[in-house]
Description:
Layout: H1 11-21, H2 23-33, H3 49-80, H4 83-96, H5 98-110, H6 114-144, E1 148-149, E2 156-157, H7 159-194, H8 211-214, H9 217-234, E3 239-244, E4 255-256, E5 260-265, H10 279-291, E6 309-317, H11 318-323, E7 344-345, H12 347-355, E8 362-371, E9 376-386, E10 390-400, H13 405-408, H14 419-443, H15 467-470, H16 479-506, H17 512-523, E11 527-529, E12 535-538, E13 541-544
Helix pairs in contact: 1-2, 1-3, 2-3, 3-7, 3-9, 3-14, 4-6, 4-14, 7-14, 10-16
Transmembrane segments: 69-95, 115-132, 166-187
Keywords: Membrane, Transmembrane, Transmembrane helix
Amino acid sequence: MTRNRPSKDDTTRYLCAAAQLDADFADDAIREFLVERTRPVPPSPGTDATAVLGEAIAARARRKIRDGILAALAVAILFTAPFALLVGWVVVGLIASISQMNKQLKTLVRKSNPVPVIIAAAAIVVLIVYGPDLYEDVIEDFFDSSSYSSSRFDVNYSSSSENGGLIVALVMMGGMLATLITDRLIVWRHLTRRFNWNAGPIADPLTDNRPVLSMSGTFMRELRRIGEVERESHTQDGAAIVVYRGFSPFVGAGMEYGPWSVAVPLRPLEGKEQKPLTTDVLYAEIRKALSGLGRATPLTPSERLSSLRIADQVMVPADELIDHLADPASRMILKGQGHPPYPRLSIEDMERLRAEPEEWARYYLCVQVETWDRELVLSVFIHAAMDDTTLYVEWTPYVLLPIKQQYQEIDQLVPGSPKPVFQALRQMLRLPITILPATVKLLTMIRPVPQRPGFINPHVYGSLNSLRELAADDNVHNYLQLADVDRYLKILSSRFVPAVTNLLEDSGFSAEGFERQTVFVDNRNVHIGGSVGGSFSWGNNVVQASITTTGGKK
């Protein structure tokens, strides 16, 4: 008996939370989608792009307000606080930042960039060796001198003016702490109330009256454009158009996972009549065979194949699209210079392109399975081409890994907890170390890609990552997720290969060459061995408890 299992849809709220938690994620999302008015939004499974981008705009505006207040107060403290107080605060900030600096050093080491690591290590050694003596000398000079003399300003202060400056500095520091506490409480309220697992739908930023959104007029104009495109694309038929920049055309699908392709001669079977065999017939047979998996619900955990989706996509590299602007065929993708690409290709143009692929525009049949409450997404892109003598088939699986654990931890937060206050206190201690980078970021604008007069930069027309990819983790979260990737891939392959084989034989052609080559590549495909900490591999690659790629982007 088929059971009806509801599937959670947490992707959008986790990504909205990521915008509030992670400044880099919010800025990367804005930079990718809200700066260039000609850049499209690629497919992002289970994601409301408008809601996530709206939250990124609001989070960036909130941080600008916070950092602006902190920078102004920091300037006041710099001119009023005793030198010893500033040095002491810097030392405390360095001590409080050790763990964060250690994480950053590890990241730099993984990226094999030795220069920043050497500089940071030298700075830490100098601090450990000379820091205590330096601070002791400063304190002795401060208390032993008959008058306080600042080398920064070369001004002598009387005892009363010293006390007044200290009081002003302490008041400013209190204002900093109040600003940080307020900021943390606002974020905490977002995470525990607006993005809570039972909070209901997230407000549409295009109709939300939050004042923080009105501060970013340019970004909001682009967000309205994206919202209109998203609504229109849901009501249109045809193939989704993905205009991409970079190496991989499969934007939004994650990382490549063991692709293969075969080319086989079409040999007529003796004594059997040949029937017309075209790419349209082949795609129709593949779609029919894979669609049948949706009814085989007990085959997979939680009956996830019941929600299997099959869609048409057309991949177009941005640089080639710009190079072919004079080609009349490009008008089915792009209206003209200065306009964003169309979100969908008409059915008529899709069928023509499927039968006669362009070098710069390719049709793919996308088969997609969302599993583990939409955390893990397996997509297989199928492309086929043929003439009277040869059949060519591509099978390109991609895996979209789960959203980072740190964004999913919002479900463990408790409303009314004192934790945001402690977070603000920790930020206050580290402020002398973080205030300069924060001020630089405050003054930094997210600008469009530079355009040379008379030159069309193709990067403004192509996407590189989806919102979901920007928040993806580096690996699966447990062994069962890894096992399910292999399971779904083998199930899809078990229907795909026989579908092509049967079609060839029914059409009067030998399927021996196709079967032989697919058996060979299947033996090189993914397999799993060992326990939870075991290894899995494809081809000649063997990896311990992690997913790796054979090409493309990660």
